[in-house]
Amino acid sequence: MVRAGAMRGVPGVYGIAFLLAAAKLLAHLLTNGQYGYFRDELYFLACGERLAWGYPDMAPMLAGVAWFTRNFVGESLSAVRLLPAVAGALKVLMTGLIARELGGGRFAVGLACLCALLAPVYLGVDTLLSMNAFEPLFWMGCAWLAVRMAKGGDPRLWLAVGLLAGLGLMNKHSTVFLLAALGGGLLASRQRGLLRGKWPWLGVAVAFALFVPNLIWQVQHDFATVEVLRNVQRTHKNVVLGPVEFIGQQILIMLPAAVLVWGAGLWWLLGRRGSGRFGFLGFTYVVLLTLMIIFEAKHYYLAPAYPMLFAAGGVFWEQMSGRWGARLRSVVNSLVTVSGVALAPLMLPVLPVEKYLSYQDAMGFKPPKTEVGHVGPLPQHFGDMFGWPEMVEKVAQVYHGLPGDERGKAAVLAGNYGEAGAVDFFGRRHGLPKAISGHLAYYLWGPKDYTGEVLILLQFEGRGAKQYCASVEEAGRVGHPYGMAEEHFTILVCRGLKQPLKEFWPRLKHYR
């Protein structure tokens, strides 16, 4: 627990930030080798084998991260999750840097970093290989540079903002919301003068130049990402939240006790004390919140913005003076620490599953769903870690059980990138060929040279398969007791696709 006041032996301001960042890193290094590979991780690793300037559902940077990890770090679960853990630690450190720039001392930096360390959503996303682990670094790097300029820093820092923003766009397209909100926040504040002159526009030019390769890819592929987003909205794939529900889930995923910090931080930024130089950060958050609600975003899409509010909240509580101020600081610090530690096992894979379920019931805290269709005994962030090796082993049994003349021309056709990625990753040890699929990037990778004479179908309905195959055989059932409901299905063997697979391929396109 971080305490206010100068004491001998107590680390300095930056020392506290480094210690809490190291604690964050250690927490993930000790736990991220548990359970199994997450569905999306298997897909990202597959993308890393097929580097491109874009993918239907994501910007290109993460595929590069996956490629780097496999080639220079390793393929074990802990290796795949090493860079997200490092990014999580850097996020804690960045929170401390922002708090220091806002005028915070030891207590402010410590409390802000503590919130960034224990926020449930950060514990979850920093456990997995995904663009969400890296996104806050780009967002908050821009915010930190903007604060420095607000304090009289060199306006050429806009070039660095452009660099971070461009890299952020290549990591995740939602960085465009940060750019819009930061511009709107500056215009709405007393710091609108920072937008004058050539340097902000040169920063925009830098960001655009970095984003051009992905933009060209989008043009070449008929703006595939826009098509994915439209299909997601049209099919009501995601849980849609109203304004009150969205804000309520922000409180939940950022740690309920921490609302005392980030809520106070928002008030401080928009109030008299912060509005002079730093009010634009508060307006930036308000614009981001509004945009996320309007565009029906998932609740965690706003998570990258909270380190700056934690930082401001730390400064607010540090400035509380007098006897009651000291007591309140202690209470807030204690609430964040105790509740954060208590909820951490619900987001970190540390407990055996049965104990996890009991603990979740005892705590009365269940991470909210983000997608309508995900059902299982565990929350999706854990449920999608189970069943993949077992599924691939069963697929291998079916594949090697085919007559020799069929095996050489048999393709494994998966209905979802999770099954396809699992076959690609685990199938090597079983002698399986790479999977094909019509889902997202797999659709672009095509049917290879397969004709459709023999197809091992994963997650396809028998009734639908019989319409297109000369014969359909049930070859076994798969499904892990802790896995998601959609991963309980019957493996089918389709023989004699009634149309050449390359001609049939457009029917399999699945962009959502």
User: How much helical structure, as a percent, in the residues?
Assistant: 55-70%
How many DSSP H or I helices? 26
> What summary fits the major beta sheet?
5 strands, mixed
| End-to-end distance | 44 Å
Number of strands: 5
**How much is the radius of gyration in Å?**
25 Å
How many domains is the backbone divided into? 2
Low-confidence stretches: 1-8
Query: How big a fraction of the residues is strand?
Result: 5-15%
Q: What is the arithmetic mean of pLDDT?
A: 93
Structural commentary:
- The protein has 512 residues and is α/β, with parallel strands linked by helices.
- The chain folds into two domains: 334 residues, no CATH class; 121 residues, no CATH class.
- 59% of the residues lie in helices and 6% in strands.
- The protein has a five-stranded mixed sheet with strand order 2-1-3-5-4.
- Helix 23 links the parallel strand 1 and strand 2.
- The N terminus is likely disordered.
List the helices and strands and how they pair.
Layout: H1 13-31, H2 39-48, H3 61-73, H4 77-80, H5 82-101, H6 106-118, H7 120-125, H8 131-150, H9 157-171, H10 175-187, H11 199-220, H12 224-234, H13 243-253, H14 259-270, H15 272-275, H16 279-294, H17 306-319, H18 322-343, H19 353-363, H20 380-383, H21 388-400, H22 404-407, E1 410-414, H23 417-426, E2 436-437, H24 441-445, E3 454-458, H25 462-468, E4 469-478, E5 489-497, H26 501-504
Parallel strand pairs: 1-2, 1-3
Antiparallel strand pairs: 3-5, 4-5
Helix pairs in contact: 1-5, 1-6, 2-3, 2-23, 5-6, 5-8, 5-17, 6-17, 6-18, 8-9, 9-11, 10-16, 14-16, 14-17, 21-23
